[in-house]
Design goal:
7% strand
């Protein structure tokens, strides 16, 4: 079933008509349970969940204050296709020699409901902060 969802997402990303694709609303508390169930805290740190550190002690922070909200689609993509986009600061330590993400692929073991709840939890952990004020002065004319 999860494979079908992944296929639908891939097809929808190629088709301009599919912009409205969205999963149902998830449960934030259930998503927190899923985060722990799949041991996301071995490589990711987030709010009040203890970071355990895996074999390579990779620590990629999630959540917190950001100037741009993480999109729903971006978070779904990060879970089902972690190699799609790797942040520049993690390209060396967070990826393999082939440039793929070290994140395990959960597509065969995570249910769609677990994905929905996990994304709801992750999205709830990001808080928008105002960008720093612009102190530039206009050029004299």
């Amino acid at each position: 079933m999860f494979t079908l969802l992944c296929g639908a997402l891939l097809v929808s990303s190629c088709n301009e008509q599919a912009r409205g694709f969205a999963l149902p609303e998830g449960e934030v508390l259930e998503g927190k349970v899923i985060y722990m169930k799949f041991s996301c805290n071995e490589c990711h740190s987030i709010s009040d969940i203890e970071w355990k550190g895996g074999s390579d002690s990779l620590n990629i922070p999630l959540g917190g204050e950001v100037t741009n909200k993480k999109t729903y689609g971006g978070l779904v993509t990060s879970v089902i296709n972690p190699s799609h986009e790797i942040a520049q600061q993690y390209k060396q330590e967070g990826s393999t020699e082939e440039g793929l993400s070290k994140m395990e692929n959960y597509n065969e073991v995570m249910t769609i409901q677990e994905l929905i709840d996990l994304v709801a939890f992750l999205q709830s952990e990001y808080k928008i902060k105002a960008p720093p004020e612009n102190y530039y002065y206009p050029y004299p004319r």
